[in-house]
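User: Reviewer 2 asked us to show a designed sequence for the structure in our supplementary figure. I'm pasting the structure tokens here. Could you produce the per-position amino acids so we can include them in the response letter?
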């Protein structure tokens, strides 16, 4: 029986060291304007304006990476301006955020991806991300594990939109069991569960879960996921 694992990317397989968007703005403020502003100061201005905040609305009209970044630009300009930093420095966000040096893999990611590869699983990435996601995956050395990368920046559908999950099912008609592994209950688990995936919540910080019906299994490390699934694979 063929199985497929859809992996979330951010905070499941990899993460931007020290922090994501707020940290990026904080780094730019320090490097380019010489001012030290903690990432917490930027957080309030990053709560809306990204495509994933509006996930109900597909953005299939955004065709290029440049278009994608152009649409996000006002969010970064505003965040900088509200912290007294010149908004023109928003032009550095793309370079800073997507710098591969800033990204690292979650513990045991390679080992676990290898395990499922050896056990004949299909593996894909399903991520709400920036257009440069695939470049990051390549630079982290894990591209070969994935049949396909479903990046919302290009598909136009942000999780938990049902189409994000339906696309995978359509592309792999021979697969009988679909699994989703991700760190967000609302974004990864709920949508996947509704679409008929088996759901694995990656919860290394042992947060409380408000929506238990969306989660089939809870795992606190990727290694635990591998161990739990040993014996259930088709070699
Ligand atoms: Mg995530």
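Assistant: Here is a per-position design you can include in the supplement:
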């Amino acid at each position: 029986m063929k199985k497929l694992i859809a992996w979330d990317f951010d905070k499941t397989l990899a993460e931007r060291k020290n922090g994501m968007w707020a940290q990026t703005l904080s780094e730019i403020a320090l490097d380019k304007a010489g001012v030290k502003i903690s990432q917490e100061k930027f957080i309030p201005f990053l709560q809306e304006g990204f495509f994933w905040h509006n996930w109900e609305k597909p953005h299939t009209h955004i065709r290029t990476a440049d278009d994608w970044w152009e649409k996000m630009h006002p969010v970064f300009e505003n965040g900088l301006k509200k912290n007294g930093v010149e908004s023109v420095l928003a032009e550095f966000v793309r370079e800073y955020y997507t710098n591969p040096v800033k990204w690292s893999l979650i513990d045991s990611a390679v080992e676990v991806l290898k395990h499922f590869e050896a056990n004949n699983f299909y593996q894909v990435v399903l991520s709400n991300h920036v257009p440069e996601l695939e470049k990051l995956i390549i630079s982290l050395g894990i591209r070969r594990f994935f049949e396909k990368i479903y990046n919302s920046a290009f598909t136009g559908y942000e999780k938990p939109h049902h189409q994000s999950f339906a696309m995978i099912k359509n592309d792999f008609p021979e697969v009988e069991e679909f699994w989703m592994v991700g760190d967000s209950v609302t974004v990864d688990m709920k949508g996947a569960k509704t679409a008929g995936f088996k759901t694995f919540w990656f919860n290394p910080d042992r947060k409380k879960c408000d929506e238990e019906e969306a989660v089939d299994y809870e795992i606190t490390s990727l290694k635990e996921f591998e161990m739990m699934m040993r014996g259930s694979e088709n070699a």
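For the response letter, you might also mention the following. The mean pLDDT is 96. The CA atoms of residues 29 and 84 lie 10 Å apart.
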